[in-house]
Request: fold
Amino acid sequence: MSAMEAGKVTLAMGAGGKQTSELIERVFARRFASPLLTADDAAVLEPPRGKMAMSTDGFIVSPSFFAGGNIGKLSICGTVNDLACMGARPLYLTCGFVIEEGYPLDKLEQIADAMAATAAEVGVTLVAGDTKVAGRGQVDGVFITTTGVGEVMEGASPEGSKAAPGDTIIVTGDVGRHGCTILLERDDFGIEADVTSDCAPLWASVEAMLEVTRDVHVIRDATRGGVGTVLYEIAGQSDVGVELDAASIPVDPAVGGVCRMLGLEPLYLACEGRLVVIAPQEHASELVEALRSCPYSGGAAIIGRVTADRPGWVVLNTEVGTQTLLPQPTGELLPRIC
Reply:
C-alpha cells in the first residue's frame, strides 16, 4: 500500500521527489489553482498601483481544529487582516507548511479547503508556497506561515501613533470569543459552553469604513492579548489616554459566563475577527453604520474615547459609576491561540 493510500503524511513526501509532487497535487495545487500560482521558484506578479503593504505571520494554534474554523482558515484571515489594518486591499498570498510525519491526509485536505474558501471570499490569490515534512514529535501536527501583499487605498494611512484626544474608539463586534473557544476546546477546566471563534476575514469591513472616510486614525486586529492589550499599545504609541465605558463593551453572554467562572477579563482574550478602530468623533456614527452593514462586523459598537489625561493608561468607567485602571497586560494568558 502506498503512503497516499494509507492516508498519512510521510517523510518521503517532504523530500522533493515524486511523492512530494503527488502530495502537492493532491492537497494544494488543485485547491489553490489560478493563472498566478507557479510551479517555478518564485511567482512573477503585477505590482500594486500605489503604496504596497506586506505582512507575514506564523500559525501554530492548538488544537488546529476548533469551533468556527481551523488553522487553515486562521492562516488566511490572520495575514489578510494585518494587511487590511494598514488600509490595504489584499492581492497575493504565499504559504509555507511544516507537517508532522504521520499527519492524516484528510485533515490536511480540510485545512487546504478552508484556506481556498477563505481566500476566494476575500478575493486574494495564493501564488506560491512551500511544503516540509518533519519527523514525529518535531512538529505538533501542522504549522503554517503565510505572507501577504496588498495595495494601500489612496489616502488611507492608519497607524498606531495617530490616536488623538477626542477620537472615538470602536470595536467591530463582541470581544474575546476566539480565546474563549480555544480555552474550551482544550477542556482543561471541564466547562461546557456554546462559544464559536470569531475567526473571519475583515477586508470588507475596512473597505466599507474607508469608503465613508479615509480619515481613520488607527485600525488594529485584536489577536493575541485581545482588545485590552491593543489599546495599551496604542496609548503608548500615541502618548494618549484611553477611557472605556464598561457597559458599552459587547461580550457574548457565554463568553462572559466562562470569564466570570475563571476570573478572566474578556478584554484580554484573543479575537480573530475583530478590529479596534480609532477615528475622529465626527465620523464615528457613519463608521459604525457602515460596519454594521458588513457580514463580520454587525455588532460594531462605540466603547470609549481617547483623552489627553493619563497618557499610556487605559481607564474603565464601570457600570456602577466608578473609574478604575484596566490592569496592564503581563505575560501570555493563553499560549498557542493562533
